[in-house]
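Incident review: delayed structure delivery

Summary: a single-chain prediction request sat in the queue longer than the usual turnaround. Root cause was a stuck worker, restarted by the on-call engineer. No data loss occurred. The affected request and its eventual output are reproduced below so the record is complete for anyone auditing the incident later.

Affected input:
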Amino acid sequence: MRAPVYSLNKSRLRHAKALLYTLVVTCAFAQSPVGAHDPTGQWASLSSDMREWFKSLRSGRHGTPCCEEADGEHVADVDWDTQQGSTGETHYRVYLLGAWREVPAAAVITEPNRYGAAVVWPVYARGVSGQKEFSFIRCFLPGAGT
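Output delivered after worker restart:
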């Protein structure tokens, strides 16, 4: 008796690829993230109007939600800067966990900063030994002075 032969038509193959992509992206975001939830109380004095504004923020090109204000971190003026690229475009950098991190252009919030200070929404993971490690920047809100 012969074993059955299974073939994937193009539609099933596309579906399988989409399912695999979704699984990979889901796993990437589920990698033991370090929750913020305002452990330092830095956002305690925000008005409800300002909290709603933070919740409405989306990053530049992709419109990725930045989450809530408690997931963001204040960035002191000395801990972020801009650099001009070779073709004249502006690139942002943020100092996180002891190193300068490039802010992807797609993560920059382009609407006016009603808060004033710069805010970054970094994503951290726990390393093998349990230490906090930088993964990527979800969103960056430049300070109002830029």
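Verification: Residues 107 and 139 are 4 Å apart (CA to CA).
Action items: add queue-age alerting; document worker restart procedure.
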